[in-house]
Design a protein that fits this description.
The chain has about 240 residues and is an alpha+beta fold. Helix content is about 55%, strand content about 15%. The protein folds into 2 domains: about 50-105; about 110-244, Beta-Lactamase (2-Layer Sandwich). The chain has a 5-stranded mixed β-sheet, with helices on both faces.
Length: about 240
């Protein structure tokens, strides 16, 4: 009895031909599906025989996979919607705070009343651990009488705020050591994040400093529109009181 010998090259050739044939069939099917995207609607019975490999290695029906994908998309959309709702609620809260601040400033009787209102509102609404107002003055008597509030407009330490005051920029996040020392004095070492609001109304009136022990409380990602708007309100109110 003769033994039939199958050459290795012949096996490889047959395997390559089978692979090419399968590839040609796959390409043809892909082309047909692309041209007939509603095939499953016209022939729903196909759903019963189609299987899609799952990440776990098990097989799931195509419709189950489609449902899973839709659930993932819905979850992403739901999370996004929740984020937008949180932003909307926060904006509404800030708008009410801005309105309340404006009313309180209008009813303030004097400079001390304005400063007290500002410190109270900003500390509560912005959850600042420390809040301070520094006003610039060339009046030596006023500076000596209210040294905690008024500072010499020509003081060298104000050079650290030169660009901010010129451009009316809000600083939110980290501040230089010189800036923190000027605003918060002995407690500057306890502050890890700050918001600094320049007070400008025709002239440079002063600065508001808000400090937090939490490094993430004030950071560059926080929108500064609210801080800019209340800065303008406070500046206008201070300008009236300082002229009187």
């Amino acid at each position: 009895m003769k033994t039939k010998i199958i050459k290795k090259d012949s096996i490889n050739e047959d395997s390559a031909m089978a692979h090419e044939k399968q590839l040609a069939t796959d390409l043809e099917l892909i082309s047909l599906i692309r041209e007939n995207t509603d095939i499953l609607q016209r022939h729903p019975e196909l759903l019963a025989v189609l299987d899609v490999p799952h990440d776990t290695g098990k097989a799931v029906s195509l419709i189950e996979r489609q449902v899973a994908v839709l659930r993932e998309k819905n979850q992403v959309q739901e999370n996004r919607l929740c984020e937008l709702m949180d932003v909307a609620r926060d904006n509404e809260r800030l708008a009410k705070s801005r309105h309340g601040l404006a009313l309180n400033l209008l009813s303030s009787r004097d400079l001390d009343d304005v400063v007290s209102t500002v410190l109270d509102v900003l500390s509560n609404e912005l959850a600042a651990d420390f809040a301070v107002v520094k006003l610039f003055s060339n009046d030596r008597q006023r500076i000596e009488q209210s040294s905690g509030l008024f500072v010499d407009a020509g003081e060298d330490a104000l050079k650290a705020f030169k660009t901010m005051l010129e451009q009316k920029n809000i600083v939110c996040g980290k501040a230089t050591k010189e800036q923190k020392d000027f605003l918060f004095d002995d407690i500057s070492g306890d502050i890890n994040s700050v918001a600094i609001i320049p007070l400008v109304s025709g002239a440079n009136l002063g600065l508001i400093g808000l400090g937090s022990k939490d490094i993430n409380r004030f950071n560059p990602s926080i929108g500064t529109d609210f801080l800019s708007q209340i800065g303008e309100l406070i500046s206008a109110s201070l300008a009236v009181q300082l002229e009187s």
